[in-house]
Amino acid sequence: MTWSLSGASVAGGIHALGTHGLPLFAQTPRVWTYAAMMALGSTIIPVLLMGWLVERLGASRAAILGLAGPALTALLAWALLGEHLGLSGWLGLTITTVEAAAVGGKPRLSKGGISSKGISAVPPATACNLVSTPHTGSVPAIRP
């Protein structure tokens, strides 16, 4: 993940240099400080936290929690900045919240396999050894 962030930063810098030249980078220290704070607070920290969240909770649960981001942003903007949502804003916030709750209630993989209401139906693939058979080439044989 760090390499992808670094690569994107370098590519963006090369693009900016190629399209606008060196005067774009001739900014005051105050501008560079704000730019660094914005990059850290709105890109680097959130990406690293999302990676940590995926590692801790799994991709599906992290995605469901990610749906709460826009709703939380709207609520914080209302509470802290005095922003007012119109009808479409409140409608979007409600739809996003209901969607996240509906997706969060669907059956998902459990440690025992595919589950529906807590009943384990299939053993997980990670508990099996996948072995290539010499006679069939790349077709794996599953052994418990």
Sum up the overall morphology in one term: extended
> Helical proportion?
55-70%
Average of the residue pLDDT scores: 75
Cross-sheet strand order for the largest sheet: 1-2-3
Largest sheet: 3 strands, antiparallel
* Overall SS class: mainly alpha
Strand element count: 5
Q: In terms of per-residue confidence, which ranges show pLDDT below 50 for 5 or more consecutive residues?
A: 112-141
Q: How many domain units?
A: 2
Radius of gyration from CA coordinates: 23 Å
Please write the string of helix (H) and strand (E) elements: HHHHHEEEEE
Percent range for β-strand residues: 5-15%
Describe this protein's structure.
- The chain has 144 residues and is mainly α.
- It folds into 2 domains: 2-108, no CATH class; 109-144, no CATH class.
- 61% of the residues lie in helices and 11% in strands.
- The chain is built from 5 helices and 5 strands; from the N terminus they run H-H-H-H-H-E-E-E-E-E.
- The strands form 2 sheets. A 3-stranded antiparallel beta sheet has the order 1-2-3, with no helix packed on it. The protein has a two-stranded antiparallel ribbon with strand order 4-5.
- A hairpin with a 2-residue loop joins strand 1 (109-110) and strand 2 (113-116).
- Helix 2 (29-57) crosses helix 3 (59-66) and helix 4 crosses helix 5.
- The longest helix has 29 residues, at 29-57.
- Residues 112-141 have low confidence and may be disordered.
